[in-house]
Write a structure and sequence with these properties.
1 helix, SH3 type barrels, 5-stranded antiparallel sheet, about 50% strand, about 10% helix, single chain, mainly beta
Length: about 80
């Protein structure tokens, strides 16, 4: 497994990432675009908004591919 801290330090801002962090009772993931970073935290823009994560809580991070395009709804054929 690669070092999540090295990955987050080297990844270009705007990269689509998933970052796993430790929370009370388990773990949670933030999926979105890397927007900023410092020695103490990283910010990821998710569908629900900007999330700032403490580096001390990060346990894993990696780049993920672009989201698939939304499929168009199929309309039933009329007889």
């Amino acid at each position: 497994m690669s070092d999540p801290f090295a990955f987050l330090a080297d990844a270009p801002l705007g990269t689509r990432v998933v970052v796993r962090t430790r929370i009370p009772g388990g773990y949670t993931d933030a999926l979105g675009f890397l927007r900023s970073r410092s020695g103490a935290s990283v910010s990821v823009e998710t569908k629900r908004g900007l999330v700032t994560l403490a580096m001390a809580d990060v346990v894993a991070a990696k780049e993920v591919p672009p989201a698939p395009e939304q499929r168009r709804r199929r309309t039933p054929a009329r007889p």
